């Protein structure tokens, strides 16, 4: 599995709009054929910090995701809401295998 973890620091006055846009992106992403998981997490000690945890069947699934209308709309919508540019790390999942 191909895993992408995105760190996002949102401006305090944009939290509600960020969550609304991110929910729409998550719902669209979960319908993609190669998406396995899409979680949005909020840090307990800093309510402006979020992590988006994405899992795809392979790197091609993530590449396809980046071309979808819902992702492109999300990226454009949330860019001005961020306190700093988002940062993504990409991983290969080792355990569990196989994913259920």
Tell me what you see in this structure.
The model has no long low-confidence stretch (mean pLDDT 95). The protein is globular and about 40 Å long. The chain is built from 3 helices and 4 strands, in the order βαββααβ. 15% of the residues are buried. The chain has a 4-stranded antiparallel sheet. A hairpin with a 6-residue loop joins strand 2 and strand 3.
Biggest sheet overview:
4 strands, antiparallel
Spans where pLDDT lies below 50 across 5 or more residues: none
Mean pLDDT: 95
CATH topology: Alpha-Beta Plaits
Total count of strands: 4
State the order of secondary-structure elements, H for helix, E for strand. EHEEHHE
Q: Quote the beta fraction.
A: 25-35%
Percent range for helical residues? Answer: 25-40%
User: Largest beta sheet: what is the strand line-up?
Assistant: 2-3-1-4
Structural class designation: alpha+beta
- The span between the termini is 11 Å
């Amino acid at each position: 599995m191909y895993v992408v973890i995105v760190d996002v620091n949102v401006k305090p006055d944009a939290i509600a709009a960020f969550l609304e846009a991110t929910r729409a992106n998550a719902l669209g992403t979960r319908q993609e054929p190669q998406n396995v998981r899409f979680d949005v997490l909020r840090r307990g000690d800093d309510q402006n910090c979020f992590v988006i945890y994405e899992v795809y069947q392979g790197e091609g699934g993530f590449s396809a995701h980046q071309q979808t209308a819902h992702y492109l709309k999300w990226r454009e919508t949330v860019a001005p809401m961020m306190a700093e540019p988002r940062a993504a790390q990409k991983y290969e999942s080792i355990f569990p295998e196989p994913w259920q």
